[in-house]
Every structure is written in C-alpha cells, then in structure tokens.
Specification:
Shape: globular
Oligomer: single chain
Order of helices and strands: HHHHHHHHHHH
Largest sheet: none
Structural class: mainly alpha
Radius of gyration: 18 Å
Distance between the termini: 52 Å
Number of helices: 11
C-alpha cells in the first residue's frame, strides 16, 4: 500500500462500507422486508439496546483523550445526542420507547439479563477499541455513520409497511439520526482525511472501519443464529413469548 491522497483515502473508506456495512446482512434484509416474527424483532431491539446504551460511554472515553478544546466541543455533542440533556431525552431514551412499543418490559431491557453473549462481547470490544487505540483509529471507527442514513430509510419504511405492531411513534429514535449522523460523519471524515497522512496511519484508519463493520455484522450473525436459523438460543438469553 502506498500513501493515498485524501480523496483516494475517502474512496477506500466508502468502499469498505459498500462491501461490509451491515445493511447487506440477511438478518437486516429480513427485518426490513417483513420476514421476521414479532419475537424476532423484539430480540433485535433488546440486543441493539446494549449497543445504543454504550455509545455514550464510548464517546466519553474518546472525549477525554482529545487534545484540544475545539475537538472536545465538537465531540461532546454526541453525548447530548445519545444521553440527552434531561431525563427522558436523547437517543437511548428514544430506543426504550421503541422497545416499549414492541411490547418488551423496560426493566427487562435495561437489566441486560437477556443479552446474547456475542452482543455483549462485540459492544464491549468496541468501547475497548476506542479506549486503547489511537485517536485517529477511534475517530475512523465511527465512520459507519457515513452509511447509516441508507439503512435508516430502509428500516423505517420497511418496518412501517410490513409490521402492524410498529408505529411511527415506536420508530421515533431514527428521525433525529437522519441529521445527526451526517453531521457527525462529516466531521469524522474531515478529521481522518487531514490526520491520516502516512501509510501506517491510513492503514490504521481503514482497518478501524473494517473492525467496526465486522462487529456490527457479528451482532447480526448472533441474532440470526439464535432466533432465525437454526434458532439455537443460548442459556440465559431472551426467549420470545
């Protein structure tokens, strides 16, 4: 690998998303196309809650490592986006509205007792990655947000069309993300373009995005294996009624 121009590096990053982003996963295709039962959708939402709830911890870990006030001011908006600025606000609270709407007991969801082991392992690995790798790699790992508006559009329209137990209010989490994710990814992409200058730095940024795509894919592999085919739910994990 030779040193890439910023434009070529961006093309390579976008190519990773085109090949590896989890909108291509069979479980997500089934979710959007109305092929899952209510219980299978509940399992997805319950497990995804852990990811949503740990994103602020991931961002706070990175925030503490950023070297300038300018960078910290920019990154801390993500904490407000997810944790809110008052009780009952922010993305994590809106995800609980989603799990409520799907008929899940809120205490059951927030207890994390029903998580798949692979969900916990994958999400914890992401937080540890951001804590332990370079700031550049940590920022680059967030670039899955470049591709999230595509999956959000498919998810919302598909779920509303196919599931009579889903309403616009249930899916209210996703509306703010259509503006938040592009804003965040624009900043992160500009940072990576500017700071990934050497071959080693560029390879690290590309590998960080591959890592993030892989862990999101792994979470869906676990859901598919446990709740679709062959349907082997591990001990202690959520069991649909």
């Amino acid at each position: 690998m030779t040193v890439l121009t910023p434009d070529a590096l961006e093309d390579a990053l976008r190519g990773i998303g085109a090949e590896r982003y989890h909108h291509l996963h069979p479980f997500h295709r089934a979710l959007h196309d109305g092929q899952l039962s209510r219980g299978q959708v509940q399992a997805w939402a319950l497990n995804r809650y852990y990811y949503q709830s740990r994103i602020p911890a991931k961002d706070a870990t990175l925030l503490a490592r950023l070297p300038t006030a300018e960078l910290r001011r920019e990154w801390r908006s993500r904490l407000v986006d997810h944790d809110g600025d008052a009780p009952g606000t922010g993305g994590v609270a809106r995800w609980l509205v989603l799990t409520d709407g799907l008929g899940l007991d809120r205490d059951t969801v927030t207890s994390l007792a029903g998580l798949l082991p692979a969900t916990r392992f994958s999400v914890d690995a992401y937080v540890e990655f951001v804590r332990d790798r370079t700031v550049l790699e940590a920022v680059a790992s967030s670039l899955t947000e470049l591709f999230s508006p595509l999956i959000i559009g498919e998810r919302v329209s598909g779920m509303l069309r196919h599931y009579d137990f889903v309403t616009p209010e249930t899916l209210a989490y996703f509306t703010p993300r259509l503006t938040q994710a592009p804003k965040d990814s624009d900043f992160a992409l500009a940072y990576v373009r500017e700071h990934a200058r050497t071959e080693e730095q560029q390879r690290g940024a590309l590998d960080a995005l591959k890592f993030k795509c892989s862990l999101l894919w792994t979470m869906l592999d676990a859901l598919d294996y446990s709740y679709v085919s062959p349907g082997r739910i591990p001990p202690g994990a959520f069991r649909p009624a």
